[in-house]
TrEMBL record:
Keywords: Endonuclease, Hydrolase, Membrane, Nuclease, Transmembrane, Transmembrane helix. One of its GO terms (molecular function) is endonuclease activity. It comes from Winogradskyella maritima. The chain crosses the membrane at residues 12-32, 38-61, 68-86. The lineage of its organism: Bacteria, Pseudomonadati, Bacteroidota, Flavobacteriia, Flavobacteriales. This is Endonuclease/exonuclease/phosphatase family protein. CDD domains: EEP-2 (cd09084). SUPFAM superfamilies: DNase I-like (SSF56219).
């Protein structure tokens, strides 16, 4: 610290705090929320911590100061974190006759409460699906709507909310030979599944929607909430998600087929929840995506909370985020797979 001016000492103190927090976040995949809730909440801020540490690194580099080593070493130790935030490679795209496309989309009830100034969201989403033609489509926050019909697909739905009759649905161009659900306790969230027949193979596809904190992430709305109230909401959500994932994995363990897990986790790729759910599977974005992979339409923040995980024996030959499709608060994602 010798030779630093007072404002640089202040900068280095802030740098140290950001570096320590990022270092602590490396433990997130291994520590369950039920054991250390405060640490698990940190998962939401990891993208910001990575960006802040990169900015500090650039700051000290431009000033030619050895303080750059702090963020450099911390970022180096977590290089997999840094590169999971932004994929610098171009999207993988392998053409193969055995390819099939799995799409995930949280449609936010087809704009039931007029969040968007668009009265034709359901029909616009139908047109989008008709154009992209996914072979399997997993939808969260689904509600039956007269303007959304896919007659060329087999369908399995589970509407869990007794009042609104909303839930999850899976559409498949391949025949569905079995279907069911994993009903989470004390919540309208759940996971559903279909066993589909593709040629001589049977594949299980899960559509999972984990508990939401129901916090409006826009800055203007966050400022209205007390920090204690926000923390309590997130804490309760993560504990509920942990129980939901345990219940889901117990169900999945009984499956003898190759599996694809698609859904809205309401959590990030830096969390214990993500780590447990992914297991040995392949994150399709990590394998074939590029850029930030942002799936939630939040200003100035690259939040990726929607995922497609493929069994290790399934090839991921492509991945796409439809970030121009602004018909919900989520963006649809699509993985090109081959058994």
């Amino acid at each position: 610290m010798k030779g630093l001016k007072w404002y640089d000492k202040l900068m280095f103190f802030a740098n140290s705090v950001a570096a320590v927090l990022l270092l602590l976040s490396y433990l997130l995949p291994f520590v369950s929320p039920s054991k250390f809730t405060l640490l698990s909440v940190l998962s939401l801020g990891v993208p910001i911590l990575i960006i802040i540490n990169i900015l500090f690194l650039v700051y000290w580099l431009l000033k030619v100061k050895r303080q750059l080593l702090l963020s450099f070493i911390v970022l180096l130790l977590g290089y997999s974190y840094v590169f999971s935030l932004y994929k610098f490679t171009s999207s993988k795209k392998i053409e193969d006759s055995g390819n099939f496309k799995v799409m995930n989309y949280n449609v936010r009830l087809f704009n039931l409460y007029d969040w968007l100034p668009n009265e034709n969201v359901a029909s616009d989403i139908k047109q989008f699906v008709d154009t992209t033609q996914p072979d399997v489509l997993c939808i969260q926050e689904y509600k039956n709507h007269e303007d959304f019909s896919l007659p060329d697909y087999y369908k399995h739905e589970e509407l869990t909310d007794a009042g609104l009759k909303v839930g999850q649905v899976i559409y498949s161009k391949f025949p569905i030979v079995d279907a069911g659900s994993v009903d989470f306790k004390d919540t309208a969230n759940n996971a559903i599944y279909v066993d589909i027949k593709k040629g001589s193979d049977t594949l299980r596809v899960y559509n999972i929607h984990l508990q939401s904190s129901k916090i409006n992430p826009e800055v203007e709305e966050l400022q209205k909430e007390s920090s204690e109230h926000l923390f309590n909401k997130v804490e309760e959500t993560f504990l509920t998600q942990e129980m939901q994932v345990k219940q889901f994995l117990a169900h999945k363990a009984k499956c003898t087929y190759k599996t694809v897990i698609s859904g809205d986790l309401n959590n990030t790729a830096y969390s214990y929840i993500y780590s447990q759910l992914k297991g040995e599977a392949v994150d399709a974005f990590d394998e074939a995506g590029n850029g930030f992979g942002k799936t939630y339409n939040l200003k100035f923040f690259p939040l990726r909370i929607d995922f497609i995980f493929a069994d290790p024996s399934i090839s991921v030959n492509g991945f796409k985020t439809y970030s121009d499709t602004k018909l919900s608060d989520h963006f649809p994602i699509e993985a090109t797979l081959k058994i």
